[in-house]
Amino acid sequence: MRMRPTLSWTPTEDLPPGTTDVEPVADALSAGGVLVLSGAGLSTESGIPDYRGEGGSLSRHTPMTYQDFIADPWARRRYWARSHLGWRTFGRARPNTGHRAVAAFGRHGLLTGVITQNVDGLHQAAGSDGVVELHGSLDRVVCLSCGTFSPRRELARRLEEANPGFEPVAAGINPDGDADLTDAQVGDFRVVPCALCDGILKPDVVFFGEAVPPRRVEHCRELVREAASLLVLGSSLTVMSGLRFVRQAAQDAKPVLIVNLDPTRGDRHALTRVALPLGTALTTVADRLGIPVDGRPAAPGES
After folding, report:
1. Distance CA 303, CA 290 (A)
2. Which of 54, 153, 232, 272 is deepest in the core (most CB within 10 A)?
């Protein structure tokens, strides 16, 4: 029997309550050496839903697993039909104030790096440099046979040519760019193979049930070792891919600060959890530090 990956988490212990006090976050950033770890919650204000928050996509949608994608041709057809449609909306998303605040902190030398669990590229679009995409990026496609990488826009063009008139109305878009479609809407959608070897194409993202490449994990562990503190933004830390870095920082006695509306699996390791919307919290912190976001100067008396 195939094991399903962990998709949800329910607290089994009393966790410290969240706060609306952003001062510890401002203090950590003021001291510098902060490593950011971001999750889907940071992109909700850009119109991309998260997985587990209020109204999150897991309440209506089970994400594609690596095992199903590899083993089941129908699962691949369903995935690519839904992803092809979702890509049109997903690709139009733009950075929000949270992404831009992170970029501003980086420009002012307060960060040692950014690790993101998101696959949307919005940190880079906001101006952050050296972002480690823990779970990959929807901008790229990889052939599982020959290993060739290609741009997603090229695959989108090929899928449009193979499926003229494919214009179903999706019920929603998910954090992985997958649109909600019924099997009837998927219909006889045609999947195209690798243009070089006819192999199976897969988005260059880590599916649920798939391991993050070991070299990428070790690079992230090194970033944690080099950082003075870890700032978690918009992640429930349900899956081990992000939680392990929180545990590492805590074991090394480095402060862990979390900004997330809901409790997280890492709260017991954290100095504080700020229960505010990401955009509100981070722009408030930027104002307190006198750091402009989008060229906006800090408000008088807030620097």
Report:
1. 4
2. 232
Going 126 to 130 to 278 to 264, the CA torsion angle's sign is positive
Number of alpha carbons in the 13 Å side-chain half-sphere of residue 172: 16
Active site residues: 135
Sheet containing 149-151: order of strands: 149-151, 136-143, 201-205
Distance CA 160, CA 138 (A): 17
- Whether 271 and 246 have beta carbons less than 8 Å apart is answered as no
Strand duo 34-38 + 229-233: pairing: parallel
Exposed (0-12), middle (13-18) or buried (19+): which is 127, by Cβ within 10 Å?
middle
- Pairing of β 201-205 and β 136-143: antiparallel
pLDDT per residue as tens, the chain (303 positions): 344 444 455 666 677 789 999 999 999 999 999 999 999 999 999 988 765 444 443 444 567 899 999 999 999 999 999 888 888 777 788 999 999 999 999 999 999 999 999 999 999 999 999 999 999 999 999 999 999 999 999 999 999 999 998 887 665 666 666 777 878 888 889 999 999 999 999 999 999 889 999 999 999 999 999 999 999 999 999 989 999 999 999 999 999 999 999 999 999 999 999 999 999 999 999 999 999 997 544 443 333
Residues 227, 35 contacting (CB under 8 angstroms)? yes
H/E segment holding residue 137: strand 136-143
